[in-house]
Amino acid sequence: MNKKVQSSKFKVQSFRATSKNVIPAKAGIQKPLTTLDSRRSLPRTRIRGGSHKLVIIRGLFKFEISIIFLLSAILLVVSACAKKGPPVPWESIVPMRIVDLQATPREGRLLLEWKTPKENTDKTPPTDLVSFQILRSEGVLVGEECKGCGGEPKVVYEMKVAPEDFVPSKKMSIFFEDQEPRRVYVYEVVSVNKRGYPSSPSNPVTVYWDHPPASPTVVSAERGDKKVDLSWESVEGATGYNVYRRLEGEEEFPLNPLNREPLKTAQYTDLSVHNDIKYIYSVRAVRRIVKTDVEGKGSPGIAVTPTKLTPPSAPTELVAIPLKEGIELNWRRNPEPDILGYNVYRRKREEKEFQRLNESPVPKDTYLDTDVVLQQEYEYAVTAVDNSPRRNESARSEEVTVKYLY
Fold it and tell me: pTM score > 0.90 for this model?
């Protein structure tokens, strides 16, 4: 007997079963067949006939097909990720391009400076860098224009670098002395690795060159308290001046002057010095050629030792008090922060000159004079002494007169 059975979740149909479209079920089992998801039951067909009950699972085949397609897609993606790309050619892995090349005339020569690259083009450390090549092209300076510029640059020098000495971002420098008057030079730098592959050329720098100016003469220096005043005679044809300084014992002046820009006047005050240290100064004239300041030879070095020359102010409010032990002196402490101490002076009524009583400066603002005689009249004065090597001493305070009575 055929019958339709319908529930709230599933639609179950009955039909005559054949051997081709049914799955035999165990006798007595009439529970619905469910999927792996216990929340849903797959559609099924219940067949009543004899002692056998058959259940047909609808949709199971479609579910299995979906799983197969999903797994195939995952395998396809994984296999695609596992594929290796084409190999990177060695010539493409080179040091990064240098971008901070500078060219500065110094004392009749040309100084080139740059920093070593931090990494290769593939972000790896440039540990295989072995040299720097200096490229140069040139032309003739006609007026303020270059005739013949723009030619193919040539390697004019190769600077070797030992692998163990290489440091990223290290400052490199080299001097060139073969410049000719009325010429224009364009410099570039390339880095070369151990396989012989060069980096891209650095930023180009253009130098306009001509005869450097003469050296300044008659340089004079005047020392002061933490300062040095320099002056010199003007140089014909110079458009500015550079001032260099080194310490006593150093052999060479630094590469860069004290002034940031060439000085327009023949004088300079150095305020970045310390007292009682000897400094050596040299002045170089500069001549402007189009856009380049060509610097000439430096003047002979002149030694200067800045020091404090100004003495402290004189002590004030000096008083003398006779005591049993002697005559006690008191005064107001000086306001200067560099006071080493005080000197105490005395003279008798009949004496013309004061005599200093202390051997070394008195650190306090009081003093007891025990070498006194009863009924003797004395005059006292006090001076202040600073802690500079010169031991600058102030003028004497106002004198006080006291008769020793006790």
Answer: no
- What are the φ and ψ backbone dihedral angles of 350, each rounded to 5 degrees? -85, -5
Domain count of the chain? 4
What b/e readout covers 46-82, taking b as 16+ CB neighbours within 10 angstroms?
bbeeeeebbbbeeeeeeeeeeeeeeeeeeeeeeeeee
Q: CB of 356 within 8 A of CB of 344?
A: yes
**Average pLDDT value for the chain:** 84
What backbone torsions phi and psi does residue 165 show, to the nearest 5 degrees? -95, -5
Reference 315, options 328, 329, 333; nearest CA is: 333
Residue-wise pLDDT tens digits, 149-180: 989 999 999 999 998 888 999 999 999 999 99
Return the sign of the alpha-carbon dihedral for residues 13, 17, 18, 21: positive
- Is 214 among the domain residues? no
Residue 120 lies in a domain: yes
Residues 203 and 113 in one domain: yes
In angstroms, rounded to a whole number, what is the distance separating the alpha carbons of residues 344 and 374? 20
Q: Quote the CA–CA distance of 205 and 290 in Å, as a whole number.
A: 14
Considering the domain architecture, whether residues 95 and 76 belong to the same structural domain is answered as no
User: How is residue 326 annotated by DSSP?
Assistant: S
Taking residues 85-111, report their average pLDDT. 87
Give the Cα separation of 43 and 32 in Å (integer).
8
Domain that holds residue 397: 316-403
d(CA 134, CA 348): 83
Confidence bin at 32 (pLDDT 50/70/90):
very low
* Residues 258-291 pLDDT 10s: 999 999 999 999 999 999 999 999 999 999 999 9
